């Protein structure tokens, strides 16, 4: 008798193939078999799938959940979307390497909030997260900004030979312990102070494991194309797979230029270079507000499209546009920026910026092999960007069903087998005998995000069941009531192309 049998489901196996009706059995954490309807059983727990769609669990290729695994081990905002694995450590900010005597949360400006400094390396981090019985799986990147801060502080110069060696050592150690690659956030401090050559040196540490170089590029607006050139050069010269995070062309004057950027990627692919991308399905970005402004010359254009997500200095501003705050207080919108950022803890403000064109989002999603990453910042105290709760159902409900930008099997492929293969999730991303049983049962006619900018902490509709490593982690049998997070706590700490930690 197997642990679970999910009967009568339309299987979307993750490969992009059309769905077929089947029963799927699960045992000891893995998929035991894919059977003709009525052809298997009995099982300890039998679930009637009612003809709904069963796919592999979704892979969030771009997450900042390093600290959320400590603060919110239920990972409810991801699990309820059908996400069973996140890739954390993005944009150059990672939980590891860490020095317990340094405040790693301060260095990342709240993006990694929740981390408790009781580890120094990836093995230590994985052990600390597992002790909290996380709901979903985690794959890690090692971040440039974190490594550079640890070795050089916030020095605005190139590293010495000794510093570069020390940084290389940290990157190599994390990848040896199972990180899937090296991430940068070259728009942020201290990454922005590094020359391309430094990044090439560090990214080349991924080569021995055939791991990735992922990047929040140096520029996503006026200088997007140069930034893509830099990324491709780093991939070529370090001889590693390059992955562009949250591909966008930001700022109204740059709207519509996403096609030129994708053309550069296509040209590189045609030469045999390995390069991939991800996108989030929204027209607003979000991040640490202080990184976007020069306080000597505050950009009015940017200030006018900013909304405050979380703001420890002025909680009453959360969920409001800067222009409205400024009007109410009788100050200029640029003064509102200065007021917030120069207040105590003002540097911890997370903002939402409406800088992306809807047509560019669709162009991105229409591109072959474009993956999906939420880029959600898991600070639940304010009004986070709705992508934290809504990304995957939004792609499947809005862009697949309502807009027809891509087909359902193709969208699921990019959220499962393609992302699992790219980020080295061993035996995951397909519904296939012997693969880990990370599964999501959903209604393709009903799946949709419900999180909005005004009410962002809202779980999506249309997800019936989520299984993580063979255990039911989330169920919603009555669409009129909230889903149930079972607290199974079966999430694993994944290692690139290897068995999970500790293995
Ligand atoms: Zn980023
Ligand atoms: Cu990010």
Question: What's the helix and strand layout?
Answer:
Layout: E1 2-11, E2 20-27, E3 30-35, E4 43-48, E5 53-56, E6 58-60, H1 68-71, H2 76-79, E7 83-88, H3 104-108, H4 122-130, E8 137-140, E9 142-143, H5 144-152, H6 161-176, E10 181-185, H7 196-203, E11 212-216, H8 224-238, E12 241-244, H9 258-270, E13 275-279, E14 284-288, H10 300-303, E15 306-310, H11 322-329, H12 333-342, E16 350-354, H13 358-366, E17 370-372, H14 387-402, H15 408-415, H16 417-422, E18 439-442, E19 463-468, E20 471-475, E21 484-485, E22 493-495, E23 498-501
Parallel strand pairs: 1-4, 1-5, 6-7, 7-8, 8-22, 9-10, 10-11, 11-12, 12-13, 13-17
Antiparallel strand pairs: 1-2, 2-3, 5-18, 14-16, 15-16, 18-19, 19-20, 20-21, 22-23
The structure holds zinc ion and copper (II) ion.
């Amino acid at each position: 008798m197997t642990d679970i049998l999910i009967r009568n489901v339309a299987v979307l196996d993750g490969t992009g193939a059309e769905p077929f009706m089947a029963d799927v059995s699960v045992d000891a954490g893995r998929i035991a078999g894919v059977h003709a309807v009525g052809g298997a059983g009995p099982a300890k727990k039998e679930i009637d799938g009612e003809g709904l769609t069963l796919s592999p669990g979704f892979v969030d290729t771009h997450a900042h959940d390093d600290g959320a695994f400590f603060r919110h081990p239920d990972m409810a905002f991801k699990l309820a979307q059908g996400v069973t694995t996140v890739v954390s450590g993005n944009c150059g900010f990672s939980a590891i390497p860490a020095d317990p005597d340094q405040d790693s949360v301060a260095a990342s400006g709240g993006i990694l909030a929740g981390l408790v400094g009781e580890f120094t390396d990836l093995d230590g981090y994985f052990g600390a997260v597992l002790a909290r019985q996380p709901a979903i799986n985690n794959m890690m990147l090692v971040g440039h900004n974190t490594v550079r801060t640890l070795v050089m502080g916030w020095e605005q110069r190139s590293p010495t030979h000794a510093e570069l060696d020390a940084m290389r050592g940290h990157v190599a150690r994390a990848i040896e312990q199972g990180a899937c690659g090296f991430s940068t956030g070259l728009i942020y401090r201290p990454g922005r102070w590094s020359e391309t050559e430094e990044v090439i040196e560090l990214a080349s540490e991924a080569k021995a494991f055939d791991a990735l170089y992922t990047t929040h590029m140096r520029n996503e607006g006026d200088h997007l194309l140069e930034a893509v050139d830099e990324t491709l050069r780093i991939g070529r010269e370090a001889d590693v797979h390059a992955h562009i995070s949250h591909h966008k062309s930001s700022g109204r004057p740059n709207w519509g230029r996403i096609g030129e950027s994708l053309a550069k990627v296509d040209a590189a692919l045609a030469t045999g270079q390995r390069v991939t991308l991800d996108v989030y399905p929204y027209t607003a970005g979000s991040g640490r507000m202080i990184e976007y402004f020069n306080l000597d010359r505050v950009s009015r254009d940017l200030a006018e499209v900013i909304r405050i997500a979380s703001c420890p200095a002025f909680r009453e501003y959360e969920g409001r546009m800067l222009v409205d705050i400024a009007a109410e207080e009788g100050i200029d919108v640029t003064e509102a920026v200065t007021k917030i950022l120069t207040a105590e803890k003002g540097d911890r403000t997370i903002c939402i910026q409406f800088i992306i064109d809807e047509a560019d989002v669709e162009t991105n999603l229409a591109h072959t092999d474009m993956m999906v990453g939420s880029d959600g910042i898991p600070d639940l105290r304010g009004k986070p960007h709705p992508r934290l709760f809504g990304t995957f159902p939004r792609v499947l409900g809005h862009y697949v069903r309502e807009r027809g930008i891509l087909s359902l099997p193709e969208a699921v492929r990019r959220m499962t087998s393609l992302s699992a293969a790219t980020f080295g999730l061993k035996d995951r991303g397909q519904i296939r005998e012997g693969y880990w049983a990370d599964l999501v049962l959903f209604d393709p006619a009903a799946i949709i995000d419900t999180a909005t900018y005004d009410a962002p902490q809202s779980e999506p509709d249309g997800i019936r069941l989520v299984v993580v490593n063979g255990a039911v982690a989330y169920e919603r049998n009555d669409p009129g009531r909230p889903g149930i997070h079972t607290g199974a706590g079966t999430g694993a700490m994944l290692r690139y192309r290897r068995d999970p930690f500790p293995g």
